[in-house]
Amino acid sequence: MSNLHHPIFNPEKSRLTDGDFSRDEVRLAGRNSGTLLEALRWDLTPAGMHYLLIHFDVPFVETADDWTLSIGGLVEKPLTLTLDDLKRRPVRSLRVTLECAGNGRAGLTPRRSSQPWHHEAVGTAEWTGTPLKGLLEEAGLSPRGRDVVFYGRDRGFSGGIEHDYGRSLVPDKALGDDVLVVWAMNGAPLLPQHGFPLRLVVPGWYGMASVKWLDRIDVIDRPFDGYQQVGSYIYRERVEDPGTPITTMRVKSLIVPPGVPDVYTRRRLVERGRVELFGRAWSGAGVPIEKVEVAVDGQWQNARLAPDIGRYAWRGWRLDWEATPGEHELMCRATDANGDVQPIAPRFDMSGFGNNAVHRIDVTVR
Amino acid sequence: MSNLHHPIFNPEKSRLTDGDFSRDEVRLAGRNSGTLLEALRWDLTPAGMHYLLIHFDVPFVETADDWTLSIGGLVEKPLTLTLDDLKRRPVRSLRVTLECAGNGRAGLTPRRSSQPWHHEAVGTAEWTGTPLKGLLEEAGLSPRGRDVVFYGRDRGFSGGIEHDYGRSLVPDKALGDDVLVVWAMNGAPLLPQHGFPLRLVVPGWYGMASVKWLDRIDVIDRPFDGYQQVGSYIYRERVEDPGTPITTMRVKSLIVPPGVPDVYTRRRLVERGRVELFGRAWSGAGVPIEKVEVAVDGQWQNARLAPDIGRYAWRGWRLDWEATPGEHELMCRATDANGDVQPIAPRFDMSGFGNNAVHRIDVTVR
Q1: Cβ–Cβ contacts within 10 Å for residue B141, how many?
Q2: Can you list the domains of chain A with their CATH numbers?
Q3: With an 8 Å Cβ cutoff, are A6 and B57 in contact?
Q4: Predicted complex ipTM exceeds 0.85
Q5: B204-240 pLDDT tens trace
Q6: Taking CB atoms and an 8 Å cutoff, what residues of chain A touch B113?
Q7: Bridge partners, A23 (sequence order)
Q8: Which residues of A fall within a CB distance of 8 Å from B265?
Q9: Is the whole model's pTM more than 0.90, yes or no?
Q10: Would you give the DSSP letter of residue B25?
Q11: Which candidate from B34, B192, B263 shows the least CB-CB separation from A156?
Q12: Do A264 and B158 make contact, defined as CB atoms within 8 angstroms?
């Protein structure tokens, strides 16, 4: 990997602001598509509605025929595997909710100028592939292996540094049971924008760990220092903080906005009478959702949880609301089995990561 | 259709501005996803990468089993057809490039506050369905029929008016050969966000005519005065202009940005030497592309046109460029068989419609 610095690619263009949104932010919003909140009704997000954060460009890969995955570095037996080789291995499917670590960034004040997500960077799919563990065991990790690095074929500049997108997992995590090398999403080959033909899926973690267009795995003798590992995806309150690397998703929930919208403001109009509120809740690392509460005008009530659809997948919830004419504020918040609960107000993060504050929606009932 | 005005849904919130982008604009950009420019390499835009302009909410339709299309109003024999009924009729597939009439809005100064598209609201798919003409002939249009109105199941407020999304075609156009009632896209059932289970496709027109979630057709004795027909999708330079209704797409072309991007600014870095520039060009109403020119630093050259892939589909083009180190500006412009050519600078439109100015990309060659 060449770590090239180039003077015109100036990392200082991304700044903290509390004003309107810059053209660069809007251009990113045009590239990165979110899951529409009404699409939370589907257990599995339909093709093309699952959120996407594309750092660089989607590689133009017309066929998987000559794609290979190489596993090298500190291993006893380096491997080079085709898609067919991989598909002959044990196959496993998992339903996994993925969320972008920057989801909610646009709700922070001040906010980092970057992809301006409001709430929409989360989706759930059934991912099919083979456990990473088996591949690493076959290659045979050296005891000197300190970090397992995953590279995609997407390339560009972040923070002034040119690199292929790369992320790592420590051997204990990489050898866990549930990390998959994946070739199918909801029963179909990966779409180009979701990593065709091959990607990693790290259940329970924010999306940055699930490297798309995966073509090589490198076992190294030191912690990986690539930009996406040490220069981004770090919780920090101030520039000078050493910070905490971002790993698992924080507990969170969202409401499907009831009623009908105004096309421009997205303000909702709801008919009076019984309204079934519906939404989703999830947490990280496979920790179950224990409780979802909904507040109408500040009065909290417990919602009913829908059946569990998978350890790593979001959970539906419902609450019947007797809507009375006037203006109302709806909020929801989830609590997970660790006792973690969503905060009412966002916690500040310098880069806009990990905002899991409660979701609020204003509605007019007539 | 009830045309309800509600005081909180204030159409004046959408305004002309030349400043940064408002939160409302960014929220829309988060909902409406564009085709990534690198995806122009595919003749048919892959599932989930085709642009989407969703006015209201995507209806939650789990099955097509109880969906019907009704054809009524000034017809001899009103019809109510299931999906199975429709699929037993003559089947036709067409490759059609659709573009949002608001594509390029964000490049106008001043601009209307609305969905802030830059270049990405265009895509091409193979649409399969049955000709509308046959359905209308079976129902038997009354000679008193002046307009054929198409309604979707999506509902909300635009311009302060509550309505189901509706658009019309005059009988001559509706009875043309190429307007389709469509249930499949690129060989698969429509995705929810593209109109599942049924939509209209009007080849050669901007996307607003291709009504999604189509469930009823109404033949009326006067020109349709619904909001989407007379309150929006009108070219106007000033508020007081009567304006011109928007119909067919204007000639246009785009470049796939060469090299690799900076994640935030999308600025491109290109290696010196031969670079094959590639892009797409299209026009409206099935008018062929006659010529594509590419300018490097203002010097125009003719590009080579790729094979035609369909009367209503975009056309690929290529040009070899010997890239020399330094800063360069690339532009492309198309000319169609009517002699219409893209302007260098955008024409102003009050609502940001029909911007077909040349596409410019700045690149750094090393």
Answers
A1: 18
A2: 4-245 (3.90.420.10), 252-365 (2.60.40.650)
A3: no
A4: yes
A5: 999 999 999 999 999 999 999 999 999 999 999 988 8
A6: 264
A7: none
A8: 9, 13, 24
A9: yes
A10: H
A11: B263
A12: yes
